[in-house]
Amino acid sequence: MILLEGAPQVSREFGVGAPRRFVLGTRRMLGHRSGDPRPSERVPPAAVACRVVVCVVVGLVLTSCGAGQIAQTATQQAAVKGAPGDVGDVALRDVWMPSSPDPSGTYPVGSTVPVLATIINSGGAADELVAVTSPVADRVQVSGTVRIPPGRNVVSDADPSASRSPLVAGKLQIVVVTAHVLRLGTDTPMTFHFRNAGQVTLQVPQAEAAQGVGRAGSNDQGE
Questions:
Q1: CA pair distance 119, 148, nearest whole angstrom
Q2: Which residues are bridge partners to 52 per DSSP?
Q3: Local structure of residue 42 (DSSP, 8 states)
Protein backbone atom coordinates (compact mmCIF):
# COMPACT_ATOMS: atom_id res chain seq x y z
CA MET A 1 0.00 0.00 0.00
CA ILE A 2 1.46 3.39 -1.07
CA LEU A 3 0.73 6.40 1.09
CA LEU A 4 0.74 9.91 -0.27
CA GLU A 5 2.68 12.48 1.69
CA GLY A 6 0.34 14.42 3.95
CA ALA A 7 -2.53 11.95 3.46
CA PRO A 8 -4.31 10.82 6.64
CA GLN A 9 -3.72 7.29 7.87
CA VAL A 10 -6.86 5.28 7.17
CA SER A 11 -8.26 2.01 8.44
CA ARG A 12 -8.68 -0.83 5.94
CA GLU A 13 -12.36 -0.98 6.83
CA PHE A 14 -14.09 1.05 4.16
CA GLY A 15 -17.63 0.17 5.15
CA VAL A 16 -20.18 2.18 7.05
CA GLY A 17 -17.91 2.35 10.07
CA ALA A 18 -14.97 3.97 8.26
CA PRO A 19 -13.69 7.13 9.97
CA ARG A 20 -15.14 10.41 8.67
CA ARG A 21 -11.62 11.85 8.25
CA PHE A 22 -11.05 9.29 5.50
CA VAL A 23 -13.93 10.74 3.44
CA LEU A 24 -12.76 14.31 4.01
CA GLY A 25 -9.12 13.45 3.32
CA THR A 26 -10.07 11.64 0.11
CA ARG A 27 -11.98 14.69 -1.13
CA ARG A 28 -8.92 16.86 -0.63
CA MET A 29 -6.73 14.36 -2.46
CA LEU A 30 -9.16 14.22 -5.45
CA GLY A 31 -9.54 17.98 -5.63
CA HIS A 32 -13.24 17.90 -4.61
CA ARG A 33 -15.08 21.18 -5.20
CA SER A 34 -18.17 22.36 -3.41
CA GLY A 35 -20.18 22.15 -6.63
CA ASP A 36 -19.30 18.51 -7.39
CA PRO A 37 -21.92 15.90 -6.55
CA ARG A 38 -21.30 13.99 -3.38
CA PRO A 39 -21.14 10.22 -3.58
CA SER A 40 -24.60 9.94 -2.02
CA GLU A 41 -26.01 12.26 -4.72
CA ARG A 42 -24.66 10.38 -7.72
CA VAL A 43 -27.24 8.42 -9.78
CA PRO A 44 -26.51 4.69 -10.04
CA PRO A 45 -25.59 3.53 -13.59
CA ALA A 46 -28.71 1.33 -13.75
CA ALA A 47 -30.98 4.31 -13.07
CA VAL A 48 -29.20 6.37 -15.74
CA ALA A 49 -29.65 3.59 -18.30
CA CYS A 50 -33.34 3.28 -17.43
CA ARG A 51 -33.88 7.02 -17.94
CA VAL A 52 -32.13 6.92 -21.30
CA VAL A 53 -34.35 4.06 -22.46
CA VAL A 54 -37.49 5.93 -21.39
CA CYS A 55 -36.38 9.09 -23.25
CA VAL A 56 -35.65 7.11 -26.42
CA VAL A 57 -39.05 5.37 -26.31
CA VAL A 58 -40.90 8.66 -25.76
CA GLY A 59 -38.99 10.25 -28.63
CA LEU A 60 -39.91 7.44 -30.99
CA VAL A 61 -43.58 7.66 -30.01
CA LEU A 62 -43.67 11.42 -30.61
CA THR A 63 -41.92 11.04 -33.95
CA SER A 64 -44.34 8.39 -35.16
CA CYS A 65 -47.31 10.49 -34.05
CA GLY A 66 -46.01 13.48 -35.99
CA ALA A 67 -45.51 11.43 -39.13
CA GLY A 68 -48.98 9.97 -38.77
CA GLN A 69 -50.59 13.39 -38.58
CA ILE A 70 -49.17 14.32 -41.99
CA ALA A 71 -50.64 11.26 -43.70
CA GLN A 72 -54.10 11.42 -42.13
CA THR A 73 -55.79 13.85 -44.53
CA ALA A 74 -57.52 11.15 -46.57
CA THR A 75 -56.99 8.07 -44.40
CA GLN A 76 -58.30 9.26 -41.08
CA GLN A 77 -61.87 8.25 -40.23
CA ALA A 78 -62.96 10.62 -37.54
CA ALA A 79 -65.69 9.98 -34.99
CA VAL A 80 -68.44 11.57 -37.08
CA LYS A 81 -72.04 10.62 -37.83
CA GLY A 82 -71.58 9.96 -41.56
CA ALA A 83 -70.39 7.01 -43.61
CA PRO A 84 -66.83 6.79 -44.99
CA GLY A 85 -65.71 5.23 -48.26
CA ASP A 86 -62.70 4.98 -50.57
CA VAL A 87 -62.22 4.23 -54.25
CA GLY A 88 -58.94 4.78 -56.08
CA ASP A 89 -57.45 8.11 -55.03
CA VAL A 90 -60.82 9.45 -53.88
CA ALA A 91 -61.99 9.36 -50.27
CA LEU A 92 -65.52 10.16 -49.11
CA ARG A 93 -65.92 11.24 -45.50
CA ASP A 94 -68.90 12.00 -43.28
CA VAL A 95 -71.60 11.16 -45.84
CA TRP A 96 -75.06 11.50 -44.28
CA MET A 97 -78.57 12.87 -44.67
CA PRO A 98 -80.41 15.05 -42.13
CA SER A 99 -83.28 13.33 -40.38
CA SER A 100 -86.81 14.19 -41.45
CA PRO A 101 -88.47 17.21 -39.81
CA ASP A 102 -91.73 15.28 -39.91
CA PRO A 103 -92.86 14.09 -36.43
CA SER A 104 -93.12 10.56 -37.81
CA GLY A 105 -89.40 10.61 -38.61
CA THR A 106 -90.02 9.51 -42.21
CA TYR A 107 -89.55 10.97 -45.67
CA PRO A 108 -92.59 10.27 -47.87
CA VAL A 109 -92.29 9.42 -51.54
CA GLY A 110 -91.30 12.46 -53.59
CA SER A 111 -89.35 14.16 -50.79
CA THR A 112 -86.14 16.02 -51.61
CA VAL A 113 -83.35 15.12 -49.21
CA PRO A 114 -79.87 16.70 -49.26
CA VAL A 115 -76.81 14.49 -48.95
CA LEU A 116 -73.95 16.01 -46.99
CA ALA A 117 -70.38 14.87 -47.64
CA THR A 118 -66.73 15.73 -48.05
CA ILE A 119 -64.96 14.29 -51.11
CA ILE A 120 -61.15 14.28 -51.07
CA ASN A 121 -58.87 13.72 -54.06
CA SER A 122 -55.44 12.57 -52.84
CA GLY A 123 -54.19 11.65 -56.32
CA GLY A 124 -52.01 13.52 -58.76
CA ALA A 125 -54.75 14.17 -61.34
CA ALA A 126 -58.18 15.76 -61.20
CA ASP A 127 -61.28 13.58 -60.94
CA GLU A 128 -64.98 14.24 -61.37
CA LEU A 129 -68.18 13.08 -59.68
CA VAL A 130 -70.32 12.18 -62.68
CA ALA A 131 -73.36 10.69 -60.92
CA VAL A 132 -74.93 9.46 -57.69
CA THR A 133 -77.50 6.67 -57.79
CA SER A 134 -79.67 4.85 -55.25
CA PRO A 135 -82.28 2.09 -55.52
CA VAL A 136 -84.62 4.11 -53.25
CA ALA A 137 -84.39 7.29 -55.31
CA ASP A 138 -86.41 8.41 -58.29
CA ARG A 139 -83.33 10.46 -59.19
CA VAL A 140 -80.35 12.13 -57.54
CA GLN A 141 -79.56 15.70 -58.54
CA VAL A 142 -75.85 16.60 -58.60
CA SER A 143 -74.73 20.18 -59.23
CA GLY A 144 -72.09 22.71 -58.24
CA THR A 145 -68.38 21.85 -58.13
CA VAL A 146 -68.22 18.29 -59.42
CA ARG A 147 -64.56 18.48 -60.51
CA ILE A 148 -62.11 17.68 -57.70
CA PRO A 149 -58.56 18.99 -58.35
CA PRO A 150 -55.60 16.90 -57.19
CA GLY A 151 -54.78 17.41 -53.53
CA ARG A 152 -58.06 19.27 -52.94
CA ASN A 153 -61.59 18.47 -51.82
CA VAL A 154 -65.18 19.54 -52.36
CA VAL A 155 -67.89 19.71 -49.72
CA SER A 156 -71.63 19.34 -49.69
CA ASP A 157 -72.90 20.85 -46.45
CA ALA A 158 -75.90 23.03 -47.43
CA ASP A 159 -74.41 25.98 -45.55
CA PRO A 160 -73.15 28.73 -47.88
CA SER A 161 -71.94 30.85 -44.96
CA ALA A 162 -69.58 28.17 -43.60
CA SER A 163 -65.88 29.08 -43.56
CA ARG A 164 -63.76 27.30 -46.13
CA SER A 165 -60.31 25.75 -45.83
CA PRO A 166 -57.81 26.58 -48.61
CA LEU A 167 -58.01 22.89 -49.51
CA VAL A 168 -61.71 23.21 -50.41
CA ALA A 169 -62.07 23.68 -54.17
CA GLY A 170 -65.77 24.38 -54.09
CA LYS A 171 -69.25 23.43 -52.98
CA LEU A 172 -71.27 20.50 -54.23
CA GLN A 173 -75.03 19.93 -54.06
CA ILE A 174 -76.41 16.40 -53.91
CA VAL A 175 -80.19 16.03 -53.53
CA VAL A 176 -82.11 12.74 -53.45
CA VAL A 177 -85.67 12.69 -54.76
CA THR A 178 -87.19 9.70 -52.98
CA ALA A 179 -89.04 6.91 -54.75
CA HIS A 180 -89.64 5.03 -51.50
CA VAL A 181 -90.38 6.02 -47.94
CA LEU A 182 -87.19 6.68 -45.96
CA ARG A 183 -87.37 5.93 -42.25
CA LEU A 184 -85.11 7.15 -39.49
CA GLY A 185 -82.71 4.41 -38.36
CA THR A 186 -82.55 2.79 -41.80
CA ASP A 187 -79.44 3.47 -43.87
CA THR A 188 -79.85 4.35 -47.53
CA PRO A 189 -77.58 2.68 -50.12
CA MET A 190 -75.95 5.20 -52.48
CA THR A 191 -73.40 4.67 -55.22
CA PHE A 192 -70.98 7.48 -56.09
CA HIS A 193 -69.61 7.33 -59.66
CA PHE A 194 -66.28 9.02 -60.44
CA ARG A 195 -64.84 9.46 -63.91
CA ASN A 196 -61.37 8.10 -63.09
CA ALA A 197 -61.53 6.41 -59.68
CA GLY A 198 -64.61 4.30 -60.43
CA GLN A 199 -67.58 3.77 -58.14
CA VAL A 200 -68.19 3.03 -54.48
CA THR A 201 -71.42 2.20 -52.63
CA LEU A 202 -72.05 3.50 -49.12
CA GLN A 203 -74.76 2.88 -46.55
CA VAL A 204 -75.73 6.46 -45.79
CA PRO A 205 -77.35 7.12 -42.39
CA GLN A 206 -79.74 9.81 -41.28
CA ALA A 207 -78.72 12.03 -38.39
CA GLU A 208 -79.93 15.09 -36.53
CA ALA A 209 -78.78 18.22 -38.35
CA ALA A 210 -77.57 21.43 -36.78
CA GLN A 211 -80.10 24.26 -36.86
CA GLY A 212 -80.43 25.68 -40.36
CA VAL A 213 -78.09 23.13 -41.93
CA GLY A 214 -79.12 20.44 -44.40
CA ARG A 215 -82.82 21.30 -44.44
CA ALA A 216 -84.86 18.61 -46.15
CA GLY A 217 -88.11 19.43 -47.85
CA SER A 218 -91.30 18.05 -49.30
CA ASN A 219 -91.74 17.21 -52.96
CA ASP A 220 -92.02 20.87 -53.99
CA GLN A 221 -88.33 21.68 -53.33
CA GLY A 222 -86.14 21.62 -56.40
CA GLU A 223 -89.09 20.75 -58.65
A1: 8
A2: none
A3: S
